Amino acid sequence: MNEAAPAPVPLTPVIGGQRLPSVIWLVPVIAAAVGLWLVVHTWLEQGPTIRIRFASAEGIEAGKTKIRYKEVEIGNVNAIAISPDRKSVVVTAQLSKDASDLLTRDSKFFVVRPRISGGTVSGLSTLLSGAYIAIEPGSTGEASKDFIGLEVPLVVTGGAPGREFVLHAQELGSLDYGTPVFYRRVNVGQVTRYSIQPDGQGIEIGVFIDAPYDRFVTTNTHFWHASGVDISIDANGLRVSTESVASIVEGGIAFQDLPDLPPAQEPAPAASSFMLYADRAQALRLPDRHRQPFSMYFPESLRGLSIGAPVDFRGIVIGEVKSLGVEYGKGFSRIRFPVEVDVYPDRLWSRSRDGGPAGPDSEAQSRTIIDQLVAHGMRGQLRAASLLTGQLYIALDFFPDAVAASVDWSRTPPIVPTLAGGLGEIQDTVGRIAKKIDRIPVERLSEELSQALMSLDAMLKGSQALIGQVDSRVAPQATRTLAEAEKTLKEANAVLTERAPIEKNVQEALKQVAQSARALELLADYLERHPESLIRGKPEDPR
Amino acid sequence: MRCPRCGGVVHLRIPQSLEKTSAYLAAAAVLYVPANVLPVMHSSSVLVQQDDTILSGVVYLFRSGSWPLGLLVFVASVMVPLLKILSLGVLVCMSARRSRAHPLARIRLYRVVDFIGRWSLLDIYAVTMLVALVRMGALASVQPRPGALAFAAVVVLTLLAAQSFDPRAIWDAVDAGDPRP
For B148-180, b where at least 16 C-beta lie within 10 A, e where not — what string? Predict the structure, then answer.
């Protein structure tokens, strides 16, 4: 223990080590700072916790269902509880910090449940990931943490520029919230809401058209269902028409201005109402401003004529059947079946050839025109639209040979004269023929026929005998006659071929005729130059 | 004291051992809280997006039936760092108070702590591998979250603490107070 242990040496590092404590204690200080920062940061990131009341929690799962705004996740459902009054569920959700200013008193929450939406990736992920809660932020500045969720989904416009319009339709069809609206096959908007009209007589559909496309909606615009595929076969071949693949799946609405009218006046005001037509053809047809009811009495059965059947004027549908009725005469002596039709005369006048005013101005003028048409032989006639189905339509056509008739304007609706025709006429004719055939006394005829045949047989036998006589007696004589005739003809031939007397005479005669013609020509020539010679005679030769 | 060969400074004991160890331990203890509270990993796929803490991973493993694995993760990632901090704290405290109680048990405890400590980095390794490997764009991706950083710091700090603790301090007290006959 005592072999040269230098005592002062250990003192030196101790002095050097005195500074260390301040340095090493920086480590926990930094750690504490970092830890504190992490915790505080996370705590600050946490946004407000909100409670939303829904009628049912269908599709909502605690810890899984997200809250989204414009497809951005801004929160998560933490818990679902049943409200104290047991009438609704209370969904507690944790939102992120930056979403807190979306939460105002009039913010709206609603559940977006999975559906095939537009075929987009986001739509697909919605389909797979289940329902989520969407928020439509309010506009007032007042903050709130308790909300009542909407039961019908709202299409989030988020204050996007554009305008909403109202469509009226008979049926909803395949439309739904968010169904796209197309303008010239461009997706320009969507269905934001729909409801049954208060009187139950149709559907009211709200569509939101994004700016700047909303100005294409004018007072002339017609909307129609663009759902599904429209396949038509016409003279040009097969045509398949659809707005987009998405619209096949989920339907759609398209709109366009009427092509025949002068182009767009000013854009339609927001929230104006439009009809939603069933298809494009119907929507883009010229509007029928004027409706003229008529009734017709047809002599034949009305079987196959249904309400809505077309009234056709040489191929142009100008109206439709409105009702079929029964009319009794006195004591059921006579039963008639009036067919009431609605005719839209505009469809005729708009095709007026002389380019004059597009139709009659007054009722009286319209009557005159119809009277004229009937005077020219226009009659109503039932015709078969299809022989297979037996469907009938009413054709208006001209029958110049028809018995004169006129429109009975005294009745309401006025009665247009008709003609039996089409299938009915054929049936009548066939019936008449059948009756005649029926009247033919077949038995007596057959007896007479057999007698006739017998006498014919006898006659044939007689003629056979006659032919035999001809063969034996007449034939040899005829042969002789023929031989003599042949000889005569040969002689005649010889006379003609000798060329001598007759032909020569004829030739000379012709020559003389030619000479006299020449002399006449000379005379005529001379007379032409000297017409006076006719009176004065030929002047003396100056020589 | 200097090394006669290289001239480097040589210490009889690790200098400032107790101070360093307690500083590292304090830092580790502070960071232990965010390491377990904050998510360590964010995984997103087409269907699900979620943040996972270490404990939520353990809970998931238990719930899905693979409780041995869950137990392993729980022990290695939650218990071991905690026990390490506690035991090192006990060792430091006793050494600072120059306690002479159970020196043999304390030295054994120290050896266990020193040996077992490094295995806690398994979690960080797993997260790192996932982040590097699961890169399928929109389909699936995994991102680290601040909790992972805190957790890694805890493990590294406990390793440093264990390293800076000088086990000879245990015997120093014994020697100084009650020199053996």
Answer: bbbbbbbbbbbbbbbebbbbebbeebbeeeeee
Using beta carbons and an 8 Å cutoff, which residues of A are at the interface with B?
9-10, 13, 17, 20-21, 24-25, 27-28, 30-32, 34-35, 38-39, 41-42, 64, 73, 125, 128-129
Of the candidates A184, A198, A188, the one whose C-alpha atom is nearest the C-alpha of residue A162 is: A188
Q: Nearest residue of B to residue A19 by CA position?
A: B16
For residue A147, list its beta bridge partners. A52
Interacting residues of A193 by C-beta distance below 8 A, sequence separation 6+: A152, A154, A155, A177, A205, A206
Q: Tell me the one-letter amino acid at A526.
A: Y
- Partners of residue B15 in chain A, C-beta under 8 Å: 13, 17, 20
Beta-carbon separation of A35 and B47 below 8 A: no
State how far the Cα of A381 lies from the Cα of A379, in Å rounded to an integer. Answer: 6
Is residue B61 over pLDDT 50? yes
CA neighbor of B14 nearest in space, from B174, B168, B117: B168
Q: What three-state secondary structure class fits A51?
A: strand
b/e burial code for range B53-62 (CB count within 10 A of at least 16 → b): bbeebbeebb
Distance between CA A136 and CA A14 in Å, rounded? Answer: 70
SS3 labels along A143-161: ECCEEECECCCCCCCCCCC
Q: DSSP class of residue A535? A: H
What lies within 8 Å, CB to CB, of A157 at 6+ separation is A136, A192, A208
Say how far apart CA A297 and CA A379 lie, in whole Å.
11
| Residue-wise pLDDT tens digits, B100-157 | 888 888 888 888 888 887 677 777 787 788 888 877 766 778 888 888 888 888 888 8
What's the rounded Cα separation, in Å, for the pair A46 and A96?
5
A134 within 8 A of A68, measured Cβ to Cβ: yes
The distance of A36 to chain B (nearest Cα, Å) reads 8
Nearest-Cα distance to chain A for B129, in Å, is 23
Residues A137 and A69 sit within 8 Å (Cβ to Cβ): yes
Mean per-residue pLDDT pooled into runs of 10, chain A (543 residues): 47 47 77 82 79 84 80 83 88 83 82 56 51 79 80 65 86 77 85 85 87 83 76 64 63 78 69 82 69 83 82 84 82 80 74 49 74 84 75 83 80 82 68 86 88 92 87 82 90 72 81 92 88 77 59
- By residue count, chain A amounts to 543
| The token pair that represents B30 in the structure block | 């502070």
Distance from CA of B113 to the nearest CA of A (A): 20
Interface residue B132 vs chain A (CB under 8 A): no
A282-A284-A287 Cα angle (round to 5): 85
What tokens appear for B95 in the block?
A: 């050494």
Cis peptide before A414 (omega within 30 of 0): no
Judged by CB atoms closer than 8 Å, whether chains meet at A39 and B34 is answered as yes
- Nearest 10 degrees: Cα torsion B66, B72, B78, B84: 170
Considering only CA atoms, which of A130, A131, A107 is closest in space to residue A52?
A107
